[in-house]
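Researcher: Structure for this, please.
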Amino acid sequence: MTDELSAARFEAAAGTGDWRALGTGASALFRTGSPGEGAVLLERVAVLADAANHHPDVDLRPDGVVVRLWSHDVDGLSERDVALAREISAAAADLGLAADPRAVQEVELTIDAADRERVMPFWGAVLGHTRSGEDLRDPHGRWPGIWFQAMDEPRPQRNRLHLDVFVPHDVRQGRVDAALAAGGRVTTEEFVPQWWTLADAEGNEADVIAWEGFEEDLPDGLLTPEEFRAAGGVEDWRVLQGASAYYATGGFDAGVELVARVARAAQEAGVPLFADLRFSGVTLRVGPPEDGWIGPARLGVAQRAQAAARELGLRAEPAVLRDVQLTLDALDVDAVRRFWAAALGYVERGTTDLYDPLLRGPSVFLQPMAEPREQRNRVHVDVMVPADVADARVAAAVAAGGTVVREAEAPFWRTVADPEGNEVDIAVIPGRAEAWGG
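Model: Predicted structure, token format:
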């Protein structure tokens, strides 16, 4: 007898109004005023999760805490998730924290392939993902999953969309070698050693990037990656999009203790902290581009975090670290950027960049394209949004220059193309099981 629930039944259950079912489980965002408030909620969640022997994913952000529930034994949602959702919501309410359920979402990617088995090993190697059935998943539950679907006829031209995978400087060569051994090829060495441009057997590209070696003209007071590393006390850290460290915890409670300590150190220093807690490990990040890069105060928080982790006996695993970015080639960068900001609910940074306001999804970079490439991409973006957000999100994307190109499966998903033909599926999960019998 299983206690598995569909997404619709989860959302219909009493006491789950703060939560929304997305592609992976159900998520809730509780707004906070400081990292310290987030740490208090995290500690409350830990007590409840330990009592239930059912542990969620928790992302602590400068102005909120995202909790994601998922029953791994049924590969879906269950009555246990409903029970824990109610308790977590009650704990947040007791702390005076309001839920913001319309702000949660998940971004994933789909690759159309003539031969899935031929291209899948390449993407697993580039991203550090592992296979789950016919798909690839981040084993650390942080970056987009990759879906593969059969391509009905060849589309041999170069895509207008590719991935940038930021990795630590000291694992970059190994990552490139693994991707080549998995069937990839180098398409250009023009930008080596800053980055390697690789392609799978069907021409879908990824840039493997490390920040070290870039000639950055940084404002006074900010540290280059080399200066950050040379400061000492940050041997566990690597500079990707910001400075990051990963610690294997071997369990939930050690991760909670580390994140709570670092959150309070960050509040004391007046530094925003981004922490992703999973049952087996914690990723910490300070100074991403959206937060102003790395200065002395952020360096100090990284040093204090490393000291706390070592005091707790935790092991750093820098090779786990990576950041993911989507790069879109565009003839009209401004028009394409406006569309993707609306379609993804992202925030603009400068004239070429977009980012997830919760820094949970991949960033987006727009780069000029010299001439049109009319072929439909073999790679597209999927964004899973709450059911009560989907219509407004599609309308916003259309108002920003998009065109609905497929809606036969509405309301479960609609495909919208930007002004230059790059596609995104705006998708809803609740109701699918009931409508499709699965």
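Researcher: Any notable elements?
Model: The chain has a mean pLDDT of 95. The radius of gyration is 21 Å.
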